[in-house]
Write a structure and sequence with these properties.
Strand order of the largest sheet of chain A: 2-1-5-3-4
CATH topology of the largest domain in chain A: Ubiquitin-like (UB roll)
Oligomer: heterodimer
Radius of gyration of chain A: 20 Å
Radius of gyration of chain B: 20 Å
Number of strands of chain B: 2
CATH superfamily of the largest domain in chain A: Beta-grasp domain
Distance between the termini of chain B: 52 Å
Shape of chain A: globular
Shape of chain B: globular
Number of domains of chain A: 2
Structural class of chain A: alpha+beta
Strand content of chain A: 5-15%
Order of helices and strands of chain B: HHHHHHHEEHHH
Distance between the termini of chain A: 64 Å
Number of helices of chain A: 10
Bound molecules: protoporphyrin IX containing FE, FE2/S2 (inorganic) cluster
Largest sheet of chain B: 2 strands, antiparallel
Number of helices of chain B: 10
CATH architecture of the largest domain in chain A: Roll
Number of strands of chain A: 7
Structural class of chain B: mainly alpha
CATH class of the largest domain in chain A: Alpha Beta
Largest interface: A-B, 55 and 40 residues
CATH class of chain B: Mainly Alpha
Largest sheet of chain A: 5 strands, mixed
């Protein structure tokens, strides 16, 4: 099959502290490429690999894109395809997307996650370390739980375990931020809060966690949720927006109980 | 106070401020509609009601100032949050798509700003008597004082005014149909069974409130209310 690609090319990294859109965008622009040897069985990233081979043969700079596992678990590969983070298939990462999801002759726009908090490193690669810094502020359990216990020594009701697990499936890809009309990270941060608050081990530090994670999120310059739920629609792990309501409630609780 | 202002400055604190002030404004809009529906009962009912409100004296001013504060906080917070949201994405997508966000949710800033314009006009019209001084100055002998019935019915006898009021109810409907269910999510109410019901309720409440207001705006045009001379 044939496709026409429009790909964001940017050789200079975006400045995270840029004051203007121009400084953030640097030399970035959309570039058009035609590919006519695409198989419907290729994954989206394999299609980009083919494009890059052509570019290298022509002596041009290949398109830089992030990837690692190529099996939908590491969260590295996200790009925005025709305006939708990770492309048209629901609950699917870019690496697990196949070219059969596009028609022959399709025009395909490929862009990096666009958010102030995710500066572009090069082309389609963004720096998601803002997520790491949020996680470092409390998305873990620091109370000492001693030597490993017998399995099931701490009973967790099935309903709670399910809720925690829904949130724990997050792979930190950043699609929620990319899809949000406000570049908000509340699905991601909500997943961290919700993951821990439904488990007994996590409940001990629930207040500091809610407060610290939200503060860290705000400092990174993400936008604010306006309950439009675009994040939920593109999340490759289909994490529900319930986790955002969980976070809102936890944050309010933490602030009210603050001394 | 410092707790409140530091809470307000956080992302979630700002959202919750929108939610609580929004709900209070919604409460006011409902009370406002219920009171004004008395227009349909004829001059005496609505004029007695207006006199009762005016006779509240200082209490009326407490309510007015409270409402103004809530309104200003709602608008100021909306401006702060939407500016932060703009800054959070300096470079827009070349190709943008929307998967599941509703039209109402995407136009909250626009519908909100339109409401602001409408509220200002509405106050100039019926509260301060700037736009139609002739209607505003009408007096009644009955309940004593302002003839609200005459003012309103004469204004809505003008098709342009009636249509403008009705058109703004569409905007109010949009704002509230997203706003009411958004309130629930923002304050942390989310449930497999109840959330879909809340969304339906949000739509219906918005429809009833905006519909009720539109009915009053068009009441003279459709012959439900007679124009007082
Ligand atoms: C009649 C007056 C108004 C009523 C009854 C009203 C009601 C509401 C309600 C119930 C909400 C939902 C809160 C939430 O998101 O949880 C809301 C949100 C909002 N309102 Fe208003 N509002 C009014 C006027 C305005 C005005 C004048 C503005 C102008 C700037 C405005 C801008 C907004 C914005 C930006 C949001 C947030 C939307 C979002 O989070 O998606 N509103 N309003
Ligand atoms: S490359 Fe690991 S999730 Fe796609």
């Amino acid at each position: 099959m044939k496709v026409t690609l429009h790909i964001w090319r940017q050789s200079q990294p975006s400045d995270r502290h840029a004051q203007s859109a121009r400084d953030f965008q640097r030399d970035g622009r959309m570039v058009r490429y035609e590919l006519d040897d695409v198989s419907p069985d290729m994954s989206f990233l394999e299609m980009l690999d083919v494009l890059n081979e052509h570019l290298i043969k022509k002596g041009e700079e290949p398109v830089a894109f992030d990837h690692d596992c190529r099996e939908g678990i590491c969260g590295a590969c996200g790009v925005v395809i025709n305006g939708v983070a990770h492309g048209p298939e629901k609950g699917t990462t870019t690496c697990q997307l196949h070219m059969r999801s596009f028609r022959d002759g399709a025009e395909i726009y490929v862009e990096p996650w666009r958010a102030k908090a995710f500066p572009v490193v090069r082309d389609l690669i963004v720096d998601r370390s803002a997520f790491d810094r949020v996680v470092q502020n409390g998305a873990y359990v620091s109370v000492n739980t001693g030597a490993p216990q017998d399995a099931n020594a701490t009973p967790v009701p099935k309903a709670d375990a399910d809720k925690a697990f829904d949130a724990a499936t997050c792979i930190g890809c950043g699609a929620c931020v990319a899809a949000c009309k406000n570049a908000s990270a509340m699905l991601f941060v909500g997943a961290k809060v919700s993951h821990f608050v439904h488990l007994p081990q996590g409940r001990v530090e629930r207040e500091e966690r809610a407060r610290n994670l939200v503060t860290a999120m705000d400092e990174e310059g993400f936008g604010n949720c306006t309950n439009q739920y675009e994040c939920e629609a593109v999340c490759p792990k289909e994490i529900p927006v319930r986790v955002i309501a969980d976070m809102n409630r936890e944050f309010l609780r933490a602030k009210v109980r603050e001394e | 106070m410092s707790w409140l202002s530091s809470f307000w400055r956080t992302s979630i604190g700002g959202k919750m401020t929108m939610a609580v002030t929004g709900l209070l404004l919604f409460g006011f809009v409902v009370a406002h509609l219920l009171g004004n529906l008395q227009l349909l009962q004829g001059p005496d009912a609505i004029n007695e009601y207006a006199k009762m409100l005016h006779d509240l004296g200082p209490l009326l001013w407490v309510a007015r100032i409270g409402l103004l504060v809530v309104f200003v906080v709602h608008v100021v917070t909306a401006v702060r949050l939407s500016q932060a949201n703009k800054q959070a994405r300096p470079v827009p997508y070349a190709s943008e798509a929307t998967v599941q966000a509703t039209m109402a949710s995407r136009s909250m800033v626009l519908s909100g700003l339109s409401l602001l314009v409408f509220v200002i006009y509405h106050l100039l019209h019926f509260t301060l008597g700037v736009t139609n001084p002739g209607h505003f100055a009408m007096k009644t002998s009955g309940a004593g004082g302002f003839d609200v019935y005459a003012m309103v019915s004469n204004s809505f006898a003008n098709p342009a005014i009636a249509l403008a009021y009705a058109a703004f109810q569409l905007v109010l409907f949009l704002h509230l149909s997203h706003g009411i269910q958004s309130f629930a999510q923002t304050v942390g109410i989310h449930h497999k069974r109840y959330t879909p019901m809340i969304k339906t309720l949000s739509f219906l409440l918005a429809l009833v409130v905006a519909g009720g207001n539109a009915l009053l705006a068009l009441s003279v045009q459709v012959g439900l209310v007679e124009v007082a001379r």
